[in-house]
């Protein structure tokens, strides 16, 4: 047992080393784990909880590997803000599993206690990020998945840039062996009138950009728009508690808040295109597309969309080989609709 415990740190260090050196090779393994969760759905007892657990763990594994890669790249960030976003990302990946587990163990009351607790924590944390740490628009998840291909390309570019900088540095200077002092070569010295008599800069400053660039904090109207969007889950839950879980009013309140937030962002874009960063435009586009999910949310789904969506999926299942995907999707859609398509999940 002591031998196994002794080798665990070595195995962990070997794993970190392999992940940092092979970022592009991880995608196949991570995708395989996610597909296992889809395959298990409905095939064994408590399969929904098990498949959601596997899906949750696969997302957490991706996040863990991304953090290893970022640490290997020595990416600097705000420590406390990064910790808050880390916890928000973990909760976003695991909240459905927590809800299903609470419903299994404590029933419907326990489920709603977990839902309210999670959404209150997410709302307070996100508001704290944008007001205290001046974070830009909050992404979903707050720590996005790392683009492994870009990391590999940037590694190669970074290495080549460092090599060029090193070559340029060596061409104009040399280092004394005993003292380690850097001395400029005589033939590379500028004319006497242009000399500033300052020492050569350090190698890390020779044109190689390191660390992330800072984005601008939200402006006043953008801050209002983001606050409305962040507060939407809590407002929707309060509307459901007061007006009922199957009525149209909470659905309409949530839709109105989404439209209000998007319209505030669009008004900022119309007033000044540069006031909204490319990252914000991308998130606004995603939020606009996510409005289609209102067709799959209660009570719209039960009263209008259910039969149409089911007929559409069954029609697609008649296409050769497409039935392997769309037939199970049509069968499990009622469960997935009751589990995933909540107002407070976006």
TrEMBL record:
GO terms for cellular component: peroxisomal membrane. Keywords: Peroxisome, Peroxisome biogenesis. It is found in: Peroxisome membrane. GO terms for biological process: peroxisome organization. Its main location: membrane. InterPro entries: Pex16 (IPR013919). It comes from the Eukaryota. Pfam families: Pex16 (PF08610). Belongs to the peroxin-16 family. This is Peroxisomal membrane protein PEX16. It comes from Diabrotica balteata.
């Amino acid at each position: 047992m002591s031998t196994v415990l002794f080798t665990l740190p070595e195995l962990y260090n070997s794993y970190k080393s392999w992940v940092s050196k092979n970022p592009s090779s991880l995608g196949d393994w991570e995708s395989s784990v996610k597909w296992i969760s889809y395959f298990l759905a409905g095939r064994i007892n408590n399969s929904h909880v098990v498949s959601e657990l596997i899906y949750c763990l696969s997302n957490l594994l991706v996040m863990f590997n991304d953090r290893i890669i970022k640490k290997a790249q020595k990416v600097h960030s705000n420590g406390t803000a990064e910790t808050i976003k880390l916890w928000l990302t973990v909760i976003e990946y695991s909240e459905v599993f927590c809800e299903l587990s609470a419903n299994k163990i404590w029933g419907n009351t326990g489920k709603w206690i977990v839902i309210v607790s999670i959404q209150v924590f997410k709302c307070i944390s996100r508001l704290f990020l944008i007001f205290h740490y001046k974070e830009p628009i909050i992404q979903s998840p707050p720590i996005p998945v790392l683009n492994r291909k870009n990391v590999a390309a940037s590694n190669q570019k970074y290495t080549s840039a460092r090599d060029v900088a090193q070559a340029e540095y060596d061409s104009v200077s040399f280092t004394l062996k005993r003292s380690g002092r850097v001395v400029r070569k005589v033939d590379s010295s500028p004319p006497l009138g242009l000399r500033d008599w300052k020492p050569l800069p350090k190698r890390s400053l020779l044109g190689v950009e390191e660390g992330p660039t800072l984005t601008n904090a939200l402006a006043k109207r953008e801050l209002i728009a983001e606050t409305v969007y962040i507060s939407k889950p809590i407002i929707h839950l309060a509307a459901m508690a007061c007006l009922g879980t199957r009525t149209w009013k909470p659905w309409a309140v949530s839709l109105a808040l989404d439209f209000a937030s998007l319209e505030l962002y669009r008004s900022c874009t119309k007033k000044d295109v540069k006031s909204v960063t490319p990252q914000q435009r991308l998130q606004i586009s995603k939020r606009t597309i996510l409005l289609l999910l209102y067709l799959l949310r209660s009570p719209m789904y039960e009263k209008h969309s259910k039969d149409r969506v089911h007929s559409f999926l069954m029609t697609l299942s008649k296409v050769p080989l497409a039935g392997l995907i769309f037939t199970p999707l049509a069968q499990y859609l009622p469960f997935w609709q009751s589990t995933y398509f909540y107002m407070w999940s976006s």
